[in-house]
Request: fold
Amino acid sequence: MIDRTPALLLAALLSLGAPVAASAAPAEATPSPPVEQIRPDPHAPQVGSGPYRYQFVLRDTVSTAPAALRPFALSHTAFDLPFVAAEKDVYQGITDAQGRTPVFAFEQAPPAQGWVLLERFGSGPYGERMQLLAGDGEGVGAMAYELVVCGKTPRLYRGVTTADGDTGYAATSAIVNLLLFIDADSTAAGGDKAAGRIEADDGQTALRRCRPDAAETT
Reply:
């Protein structure tokens, strides 16, 4: 069971790129379920070079439909992506109209297991995904969450965890704090509101959570 104190639970606070707290796990900590691969489309844009070619489909965590034109982050837990120069070794892109990534080409075949494909919030060379875990260590899927990125201008992102409890990948241009809130009373994916929605007071909510002593402007 998830700790239900309070209903909107602060699950973790971390500096992006640093070790995370107990109820969240860094991208390398636990294996992810297989990422959906498809036969590479010879007409799709290609990243990298080499005879080993891979293409993936990103699916919406609520509807399971292909996530069309969605920012994504691709990484591998045991293989460095040769076409990524950033320290985090995460490729950032946008899916096509069918929810597909570009084709990724390699000179040597990456391990079959270890691909991580997630929706992405923001952009930049720094970033992290968080993982919501139950008391038995299993990932908690289909849980609505709010991810607050405490940068110069705090941002609030909404989503629903993947089957193994992963949030989306939060990317930033600088090292900042990341806050994860969950609705512990939610029993359905996303509750009764759509994931990814933006509300008028989100900016003030993010500012208040990142800087509790900051005065709200009216």
Q: What stands out?
A: Confidence is low (pLDDT under 50) at residues 1-32, 185-192. The longest helix spans residues 202-210.
